[in-house]
């Protein structure tokens, strides 16, 4: 019996060591349902997770595994995506509708397995079907692995800051009306910080989010831009900010009065409460450099020093750049560098085996019989990459691909624009895009350089481009047309930022590099929510390697059924 207890003890010790080496396993239940919320003087029903807006936080340590059982108690299908998590070899749980799965039908549930690997810092999760992510989203907090620490002094406290959109109308009605007509989407009625519009909006003074702070202490703000269609400036009155991470990776410290954060991005920001004990507004306001409609409004929250002081008669606001201050936006976004330390090394790909040049445009889509209302001529607003406006299939691409079924998509997405022209100058090509469902197929281990090229077709503007399944290195950016002979000479191959969402500048270009070492089907799209249904998206398939560890995991026993299946 003593030997048996000793054997069981060794077994238990081995299990603990295995858990420490492989990371812990955690479980969450997400109940998706309609809940009533009162904002802007009126009450409405919105789709939520666990009756909260923003939704619940997922908290893990680096290397953990999480199982989330998504119970859809709403009235229509939905999917959930784990934004910035690589999901190594496991595209089955990545979440984009009709790319890696079909929507979870109302009244059913689906358990997704989220595999954390090299990510550390702040990421987020959100719905990835229609416009449900307007209210279905939340933070993912990835703490350092057990036995390790932050690459900076541990902050006294931390707070997640989620900036989001608020519509008085039903978001799905806004979405469906625009999709049916081919016209522009309506803008939101407010922005929110942690679910509250702030004192500058009607009926919102008493509910403004407040962050209590101790004088002299440093806090970590985990900032997420969950807004549907606006890039945002953010700052805190009379307080300096220090950016120390973005998109789940550490950066060299950036000292700034403000940040500029695009939809899909996350930033880890340190702020020290070193001013006179009082109340100070933190605020976020939009940046826009195009003719597209946007909400020109400011959402606020309060940084409140702990003590007996009363609120001042006028709480100071931060001085943020103007809505069209391109210089201020660029000055901030070009400062990012990877930390690139011994404890947090990087590996920038050097020997490129696959070059992709991808023009990104806002277009028109021809409508038969002038039946749409996107333009006076009866056409539909659209968008494209390499002049192909992506159309989602009716069965998800991952399911089709693993069955060797190419009936709804092809693998001949062009690796360069079909027509070369002065992309950022006077456009002399058609504004109309072709429609189709084409993907790029990569061999496992290919070393990829992808250059996004903005164009002056249609409504030129910035585009926040997001790639599922990978982080990548942003090695270069510039204005005008990319020159493949001279521009690479100015690449940063020493400490480029490692990210998952990149801002493509208006009438400019940005170059990124990654190794195709994650087999599966991975969505690539603009994170402006109006551009994805217009067709500014596509998918990349990375083939299996030659071993089990370089191949996709097996299909789960249950996947949400596709319509008609």
From TrEMBL:
Keyword Glycoprotein: yes
GO BP terms in the entry: lignin catabolic process
Main location: secreted
Alphabetical UniProt keywords: Apoplast, Copper, Glycoprotein, Lignin degradation, Metal-binding, Oxidoreductase, Repeat, Secreted, Signal
GO molecular function: copper ion binding; hydroquinone:oxygen oxidoreductase activity
Signal peptide residue numbers: 1-23
Keyword hit for Secreted: yes
The EC number(s) this enzyme carries: 1.10.3.2
Gene Ontology, cellular component aspect: apoplast
Annotated CDD domains: CuRO_1_LCC_plant, CuRO_2_LCC_plant, CuRO_3_LCC_plant
Co-factor binding details: Binds 4 Cu cations per monomer.
Required cofactor names: Cu cation
Residue span(s) of domain Plastocyanin-like: 32-145, 159-307, 413-544
Subcellular location: Secreted, Extracellular space, Apoplast
Catalytic activity reported: 4 hydroquinone + O2 = 4 benzosemiquinone + 2 H2O
Record function comment: Lignin degradation and detoxification of lignin-derived products.
Family per record: Belongs to the multicopper oxidase family.
NCBIfam families in UniProt: laccase
Protein name: Laccase
């Amino acid at each position: 019996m003593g030997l048996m207890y000793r054997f069981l003890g060794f077994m238990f010790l081995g299990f603990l060591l295995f858990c420490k080496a492989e990371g812990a396993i955690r479980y969450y239940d997400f109940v998706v349902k309609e809940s009533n919320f009162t904002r802007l003087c009126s009450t409405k029903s919105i789709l939520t997770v666990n009756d909260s807006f923003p939704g619940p936080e997922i908290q893990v340590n680096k290397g953990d595994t999480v199982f989330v059982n998504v119970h859809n108690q709403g009235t229509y299908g939905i999917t959930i995506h784990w934004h910035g998590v690589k999901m190594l070899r496991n595209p089955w749980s990545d979440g984009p509708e009709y790319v890696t799965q079909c929507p979870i039908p109302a009244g059913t549930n689906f358990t997704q397995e989220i595999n954390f690997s090299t990510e550390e810092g702040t990421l987020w999760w959100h719905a990835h079907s229609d416009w449900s992510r307007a209210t279905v989203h939340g933070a993912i907090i990835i703490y350092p692995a057990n036995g390790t620490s932050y690459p900076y002094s541990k902050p006294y406290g931390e707070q997640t800051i989620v900036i989001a959109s608020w519509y008085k109308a039903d978001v799905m009605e806004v979405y469906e009306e625009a999709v049916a007509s081919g016209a522009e989407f309506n803008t939101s009625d407010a922005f929110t910080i942690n679910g509250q519009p702030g004192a500058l909006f009607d009926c919102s003074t008493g509910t403004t989010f407040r962050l209590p702070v101790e004088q002299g202490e440093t806090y970590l703000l985990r900032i997420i831009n969950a807004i549907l269609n606006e890039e945002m400036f953010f700052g805190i009155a009379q307080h300096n900010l220090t950016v120390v991470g973005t998109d789940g990776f550490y950066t060299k410290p950036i000292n700034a009065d403000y940040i500029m954060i695009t939809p899909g991005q996350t930033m880890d920001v340190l702020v020290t409460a070193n001013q006179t004990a009082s109340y100070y507004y933190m605020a976020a306001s939009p940046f826009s450099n195009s003719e597209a409609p946007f909400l020109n409004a400011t959402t606020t929250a309060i940084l409140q020093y702990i003590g007996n002081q009363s609120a001042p008669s006028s709480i100071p606001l931060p001085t943020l750049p103007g809505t069209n201050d391109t210089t201020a936006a660029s000055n901030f976004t070009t400062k990012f560098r990877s930390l690139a330390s011994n404890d947090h090394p990087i590996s920038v790909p050097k020997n490129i085996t696959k070059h992709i040049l991808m023009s990104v445009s806002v277009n028109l889509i021809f409508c038969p019989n002038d039946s749409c209302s996107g333009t006076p001529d009866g056409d539909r607003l659209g968008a494209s990459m390499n002049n192909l406006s992506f159309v989602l299939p009716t069965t998800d691409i991952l399911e089709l691909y693993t069955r060797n079924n190419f009936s709804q998509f092809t693998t001949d997405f062009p690796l360069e624009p079909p027509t070369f022209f002065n992309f950022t100058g006077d456009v002399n090509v058609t504004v109309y895009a072709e429609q189709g469902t084409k993907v790029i197929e990569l061999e496992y281990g290919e070393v990829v350089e992808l250059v996004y090229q903005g164009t002056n077709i249609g409504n030129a503007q910035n585009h926040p481009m997001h790639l599922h399944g990978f982080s990548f290195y942003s090695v270069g950016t510039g204005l005008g047309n990319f020159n493949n002979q001279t521009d690479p000479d100015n690449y940063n191959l020493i400490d480029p930022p490692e990210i998952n969402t990149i801002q493509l500048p208006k009438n400019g270009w940005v170059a990124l590099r990654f190794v195709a070492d994650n087999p599966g089907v991975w969505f690539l799209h603009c994170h402006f929510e109006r551009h994805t249904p217009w067709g500014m998206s596509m998918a990349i398939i990375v083939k299996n390697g030659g071993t089990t560890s370089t191949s996709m995991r097996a299909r789960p026993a249950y996947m949400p059924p596709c319509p008609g299946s």
